[in-house]
Amino acid sequence: GALLMAVVGLSVAAIPEGLPAVLTITLAVGVQAMASRNAIVRRLPAIETLGAVSVICSDKTGTLTRNEMSVVTVITAERSFTIDGDGYGPDGAVLDGDQVVESGTCEVLTEMAQVAGLCNDAELKREDGRWRVEGDPMEGALLSFSARAGLDTGNLQENWPRTDAIPFDTSYRHMATLHHDHQSRAFIFVKGAPEVVLELCAVQRSEAHNQAPLNQPWWQEQVAAIAASGQRVLAFAARPVAASQVVLERDDLTEGLVFLGLVGLIDPPRSEAIEAVAQCQSAGIRVKMITGDHADTARAIAREVGLENPERVLTGADLDQLTDQQLATAATDTDVFARTSPEHKLRLVIALQAQQQTVAMTGDGVNDAPALKRADIGVAMGLKGSEAAKEASELVLADDNFASIAAAVREGRTIHDNIRKVISWTLPTNAGEASVIIWALLAGLTLPVTPIQILWVNMVTAVTLGVALAFEASEADTMQRPPRERSEPLLTRSLVWHIVLVAVLILLGVFGIFRFAIAQGHSVEIAQTMAMNTLVAMQAFYLLFIRNKDTVTLTWEKLRATRLVWLAIVAVLVGQLGLTYLPLLQRVFSTAPVPGPEMLFSLLIGAALFLVIELEKQLRLRLAKGRE
């Protein structure tokens, strides 16, 4: 009978039955933390993979940028203006150098603002304190430019009602509208690609002379300069017509148009994305930008966002020329890919994985699904993403923001750290319990802790001390470490050594106090109760150690622990006091009341375990540093 009970005790001690539950809780806590940072996890195991990500391939528009176009540059024949202001609201100013340009003081600028406000199909609406565009974001940006130049776009459209229009067409690459005012004046307004509008004009508006011959080479230089800074360029033109004209034909645009000037628009990077890219780079994660935009625009945004290698850009056409082998090398060295298609995304994922990288890939369209499926972590857009993209992904961004990916990676690393802490705490303490029973069996001694007492210890400590580790916050250096290897085992050599060391220390502590109690003339029940209390105290002190197992110095800040850890320790202490002194529990668990002062011995042995393993850690880490 005694042998059977000993074997049952050994089974309970050796098998970490609480571990699967605690690991699941740790992952669930991570899911909740990520959801609060706008990253929704669709598959639980993906959380751990996130912590190992070494490359993030991100879309540009809306993920690294705000997807809010805004006019920043206006060029007339004599002057260059910059436009100040955020979002689509009317608040902002037109600047000539450092000087604010008063409304109406520059005729050409006012005319351009008129074209921007009238040759336009978008609408701006204010909702919840924010301005939102209904229609093309670029046209929304032109409306806000018109307002910032001092025009009331609502009044403008009332005073100059549209009579006819030639809508934008990709083959003609321009748009034209015909307007009449209440004073019997009529105008044609045109906006479009600079090279197209320049071809339609023979003269240009000038402040000095109402009209002057068109200086086409100069304007082409200006277009190239604006494009090189990553801006999208539009040209404006206008011409007065007879008030009797009410129909607009393409032939009306071939003569008499006056070229007014150019506007440059940007889609600014998100400020939080710039910070998140820097964070990822300090964590050893390469960020790559994949966009359908022009190479110059991509290069400029890459520079602003802070990508490592912004000058080198590969376009979709370049990728088509490369073999899979060449692409594997090029994909590692290049951080900016422009004019790409969804098929290129899939090739890039495969190329990076061939270089042993763990890849996170963003996507939103139906055609992105194969790349999202193939990536180690597929990241779909929650706002503009298709259902197919979401289905193929492991992570969905509720706000389509790159910063949420960085936050998710941080959380993934924290969860992996916490899983390691849970395992590093559970295995050595279970090994310690098992070693006590094995030693007692081999030496033919009385069991220092009975099987039912070991079951209690396992249940109570797993539910309290083990679960407390699932809620540990991110460590300060979480995003300063390089990504871990995917193949890195959880059972490392240092963990195996710790299992052995802690098992031996627990064996010595538990047997030591048991022998001491018997020597003091206490009954076996009191001796077993003291041994069980010592076992729990050692586990609680070992928990405090595990929280800082990789840091060299032990500071008060690190020892202070989280409120949850202390709550868990207090809960265990209350449980042990109840087990020791409450008659009902004494009958169930075969315990006996321990004299007050001798309860302190259990705490002292726990503290001694902490000191020994802390000294061992200091020595080990210093030796490792010396070897470097």
How is the topology of this model organized?
Layout: H1 2-14, H2 19-36, E1 39-41, H3 46-50, E2 55-59, E3 70-75, E4 80-84, E5 93-96, E6 99-100, H4 107-118, E7 123-127, E8 130-134, H5 137-148, H6 153-159, E9 162-166, E10 174-180, E11 186-192, H7 194-200, E12 203-205, E13 211-213, H8 216-228, E14 232-241, E15 258-266, H9 271-282, E16 286-290, H10 295-305, E17 313-315, H11 316-321, H12 324-333, E18 336-338, H13 342-354, E19 359-363, H14 369-374, E20 377-381, H15 387-392, E21 395-397, H16 402-443, H17 451-470, H18 493-519, H19 524-546, H20 556-559, H21 563-581, H22 583-589, H23 596-627
Parallel strand pairs: 2-16, 2-19, 12-15, 16-18, 17-18, 19-20, 20-21
Antiparallel strand pairs: 1-21, 3-4, 3-15, 4-5, 5-6, 7-8, 9-10, 10-11, 11-14, 12-13, 14-15
Helix pairs in contact: 1-16, 1-17, 2-16, 2-17, 4-5, 9-16, 12-13, 16-17, 16-18, 16-19, 17-19, 17-21, 18-19, 18-23, 19-21, 19-23, 21-22
